[in-house]
Amino acid sequence: MAGSITKYATAAGPRYRVRYRKPSNQRQTDKRGFKTKREAEVFLASVTIAKAVGDYIDPALSRVKVEQLADRWLAGKRPPALKPSAYKPLEISWRLHVQPRWGDREIRSIVPSEVQEWVTQLSQPLGERSGKSATVVLRALGVLAGILDMAIDDGRMKKNPARGLRNLPKKLKRKAGRSYLTIDQVHQLAAEARYPTLVLVLAYTGLRWGEATALRVRHLNTVRRRLHVEENAVQVDGVIHLGTPKSSEHRHVPYPKFLEPYLVQLTAGKGPDSLLFGDGLVHLRPSRVGTGWFEGAVSRARAADPTFPRITPHDLRHTAASIAVSTGANVKAVQHMLGHESASMTLDTYADLFPDDLEAVADRMDAATRAASVGKSWASALA
User: What pTM, to 2 d.p., does this model score?
Assistant: First the structure.
């Protein structure tokens, strides 16, 4: 066995020391304090086996605390590695949920059952405090797991106690209650809005707010009636950050012909790099909840028509999908228009829009069959 065991005296009685060499640099190290020789032999055997199969972890490396690794993990996530809008929730999650519970813990001391208990506690209400949403809980778990993944990569531990948990909260798919405006309601809202062309663009192209407000004059192609989406303006902590669209891919989105004169009018007196909406210099910011121009337009529309739904700017994106599907667009066309990563994402997000579309397909198949000679043959046979 590669190592040695020696006995030494202490005030509390005899103890045993184990000496062995680390596989990384062959430097000799030791561990002392074993009360019996048998305990020392078992430890030395476990070290020998771990070294032989490549599972040895240097105890000094595994004594590091979670918070000592967190700074480096977060630094690897900061922009430009992640977009500001993606990084901020991770930083908040670390500060509010992960650090208070795990920051002062040595990574070697964390076991899966403790992590499972923490996840359960976050999800459950406590007194007057409601439980955290599944999104918040899973993000916090992801932060802890990510930090411990880095520890594994650094050779500080072999298994991540925050991975493979069984009882995790499930995210609820919020499909019920989504509002789709009719075409008449879209134009009613535009008539009440401070930026009517922006309302129409959101409702007929499906652009995200940040994609629309990041459009520049040069992104308007009047020859092909396309808007070139290559930037996304996101507000984080009151500051506008420019980045790529959510899918990280540029796309060319068509717009209806009736919109063209309104869009061309926005370009008057502006250079190619000027912003299309607003004064051309400053990005329009999201409308303030309850007091912004968009909420004011919705309120005026509701005053004129009580059936007008309460909506946010993002609901105009849903409206664009609804209008596209109702006018015959297929899933791939809607996917490209909205900038979804896959057609399955489009179907999953807007499954409620497609049953009627499938009925229309069945009606067209029925009409085609009746018009064909095979249809007439079947009709004669069944008569």
Answer: 0.66
User: Mind listing the domains of the chain with CATH numbers?
Assistant: 4-41 (no CATH), 66-153 (1.10.150), 183-349 (1.10.443.10), 355-383 (no CATH)
What pLDDT, in 10s, does the model give residues 21-43? 777 656 677 787 888 989 888 88
3-class secondary-structure state, position 8? strand
Q: What is the amino acid identity at position 128?
A: E
| 252 and 229 Cβ atoms separated by less than 8 Å | yes
Q: What's the sign of the alpha-carbon dihedral 289, 294, 297, 303?
A: negative
Contact 17, 8 (CB under 8 A): yes
d(CA 123, CA 128): 14
Nearest to residue 182, comparing CAs of 293, 308, 310, 306?
308
Q: Reduced to 3 states, what is the DSSP secondary structure of residue 267? A: coil
User: Residue 223: helix, strand or coil by DSSP?
Assistant: coil
Residue 226, pLDDT score: 96
Contact status, residue 183 vs residue 217, Cβ threshold 8 Å:
no
DSSP 322-334: HHHHHTT--HHHH
**Alpha carbon distance 320, 186 (integer Å):** 10
Give the Cα separation of 347 and 327 in Å (integer).
Answer: 16
Neighbours of 185 (CB within 10 A): 19
CA distance 353 to 31: 67
Residues of the chain with pLDDT under 70: 1-2, 24-27, 52-58, 126-130, 172-177, 248, 287-291, 354-361, 370, 372-383
Residues in the chain: 383
Decide if 84 contacts 92 (C-beta within 8 A).
no
